[in-house]
Design goal:
Length: 217
Amino acid sequence: MVSPNSLDANQHLRSQKVKELIDYCEKCSQQGEALDVSQVAFKTILNLANPFSDWKVDELKDVIWRITNEVGKINLVDFFPILNEKIDFQGIRVDHDVKLFDYIIPKGSLVLVNVWAIGRDSTFWEEPLIFKPERFQSLELDVRGKDFELIPFGAGRRICPGLPLALRMVQVMLGSMLNSFNGNLEAGIDPKDLDMDENFGFITPKAHPLRVIPSPL
Ligand code: HEM
């Protein structure tokens, strides 16, 4: 589903699914109904995979959420040692003592990369806590795991396998919606009051989904 060959062959299918997304937004716009942005984006991508087409999106999302949370628990191997030999868990297992600056990382340690902290490192990012997407425009960073300042898909052997699909879909879905509609937050919420709380876990989705009422441009 995400190999470059299948992706090239399925471009027409992706265009069709984005069109369905826009049709759905149009329907919500006419009825003044809010849509859950994360859910419609997830459904659009999910519908590209025919085997799952009978699944209810919420159910599948819930299953994926539970699996990723379980796999992300670093002590799973302590309970099921056999897994250690079969599965490459998140992180890097150090196979010999490593000296890093003044520290010794002992053999056998599990090293986890703190992507959250990298993204908020004020020695690299100016005003790291401010939402400023334009900060990325002038930087020539490769998000495909090459430049560690910005690794939204992870890096190395466990890099997100959905990256080629995500890079093709995210901009097209977002661009198509922004080019067709304005959006107001549900219940008249002011954007500055938007609840940005996260649910902590292997992935950190918004605690309260982003719900928007589309209206024609
Ligand atoms: C904007 C969209 C996406 C982002 C930002 C994203 C990000 C990530 C990140 C950060 C990881 C962890 C990588 C690591 O441990 O180094 C990951 C893993 C994964 N992603 Fe994605 N992802 C996206 C879309 C997708 C899509 C569309 C699919 C499937 C079609 C997918 C399937 C997976 C799977 C199966 C893993 C687990 C890989 C493993 O643990 O070996 N992702 N993703």
